[in-house]
Write a structure and sequence with these properties.
Elements lengths: L2 H19 L6 E10 L2 E2 L4 E5 L5 E5 L5 E8 L1 E8 L6 H14 L26 H4 L1 E5 L2 E4 L2 E3 L1
Length: 150
């Protein structure tokens, strides 16, 4: 390669490196907020954030009724919320006994226990991004978006 050829490749390599590392791109966002249904905090479940390409990014709903979803590409997103019934104490004990008996390691982070009295079902329409009606636009960095479900 000649000196002239290597000089021509320099800007090209810098441009490719910048594109590969995300320099000049739209960046990533973190979305967080509260989840309420008819004014009451939703205390268990998952908020799913779907980027423009349809890729899902999950975030657990805490017992305090908040959620955080990191690493979402900035831009327009749609959301869904699911809050399945928490397992009963009896069901949790059966699963634990089976795992202990079969020596299955517990690899998932256990979710905090939720009192059955604090749980209530959400309308099925919130379980998919197409029917939830929940959307927002994310800027790079932290974003706040409370979900006030009706």
């Amino acid at each position: 390669m000649t000196i002239r050829g290597s000089r021509a490749c320099g800007p090209l390599l810098v441009g490719l490196l910048a594109a590969a590392t995300g320099c000049g791109g739209s960046g990533t966002a973190e979305l967080s907020g509260a989840v309420r249904y008819q004014g009451k905090s939703v205390r268990t479940g998952t908020v799913m954030v779907f980027d423009a390409a349809g890729k899902a990014y999950p975030g657990d709903i805490t017992p305090e009724g908040t959620y955080t979803v990191p690493g979402v590409p900035a831009g327009s997103v749609q959301l869904s919320v699911q809050s399945p019934a928490p397992p009963s104490d009896r069901a949790s004990e059966r699963v634990k006994k089976i795992k202990d008996k079969q020596r299955i390691p517990n690899v998932a982070t256990p979710r905090p226990r939720i009192n059955w009295k604090d749980w209530f079902p959400l309308p099925a329409s919130y379980s998919t991004p197409a029917s939830s009606g929940l959307s927002t636009t994310l800027n790079p960095g932290p974003n706040s978006f409370d979900l006030d479900l009706k």
